[in-house]
Amino acid sequence: MFEYLGVLIAVIMGLSLTHLLRGLSKLIHMRRTVKPYWVQIVWTINVLIYVLAVWWGMFWWNKLGTWSIEQFLAIAFYCIVLFMLSSMLYPPEFADGLDFEEYFFANKSWFFGIQFLSLLLDVPETVAKGVTHLRDVPLQYAIFIPTVLLFCAIGFYSNSRRVHGFLCIAWLLSTVGYVTLTSIDRIAVQ
User: Fold this and answer.
1) Strand pairing partners for 35?
2) What distance in Å separates the CA atoms of residue 158 and residue 153, rounded to the nearest whole number?
3) Residue 30 backbone dihedrals phi, psi, to 5 degrees
4) How far is CA 105 from CA 28, 64, 111, 123, 132, in A?
5) What's the rounded Cα separation, in Å, for the pair 188 and 181?
6) pTM listed for this prediction
7) What is the pLDDT along the chain (190 residues), one digit of tens a residue?
8) Are the C-beta atoms of 117 and 78 separated by less than 8 Å?
9) Which of 39, 109, 137, 163 could form a disulfide with 130 if both were Cys (CB 3.0 to 4.6 A apart)?
10) b/e for 51-67, b at 16 or more Cβ within 10 A?
11) Region class of 33: left (phi > 0), else alpha (psi between -120 and 50), else beta
């Protein structure tokens, strides 16, 4: 069953990565006719890392022998939410003169709201892997999730350019730290 779901995961996650990479590439190509915003570029990197990490984490489900429709729909919905998160950073088409700082702040509530939802969906997905003995839930997860949820809440409500500059860097450092610590933890256990 996982092979069937794995194809769906790959398609949706691949679309997420394609949208982000296409947007970043187009931004580079159109740098003379659009106004880039460094915070939005860092968020692009953050979401790329996030999508790749979730995609990697989905592989643990291949050990589950029996699937319910609820599990299938929950995983599919989680992937769809990640695509929607990715789609908030770049418009489908770039108009000449597009100011990405204005674009980011015009969409920030949607971006942080969808990101908050995706992180909330990550909790039962991660816990379910632990309950079904597919993967232990890392101890660092109990610190990481509340931290990034707090970043999302602050980002949702704040209109401060300085706060958003801090948040994108803090999120990047938190995520890289979490991935690094959980990787070191797994190496130490083996």
Assistant:
1) 99
2) 9
3) -105, 20
4) 20, 41, 9, 27, 41
5) 10
6) 0.90
7) 677 778 888 899 999 999 999 999 999 999 899 999 999 999 999 999 999 989 988 888 888 888 888 988 999 999 999 999 999 999 988 888 999 999 999 999 999 999 999 999 999 999 988 888 888 888 889 999 999 999 999 999 999 999 999 999 999 999 999 888 877 545 444 4
8) no
9) 137
10) beebbeebebbeebeee
11) alpha
Which single residue is written with the structure tokens 């050990």?
A: 63
- CA–CA separation, 2 vs 63, rounded Å? 8
Record the tokens describing residue 125, joined without a space: 């997905």
Measure CA of the first residue to CA of the last residue in the chain; give whole Å: 29
Residue type, 71: Q
Identity at 39, one-letter amino acid code: V
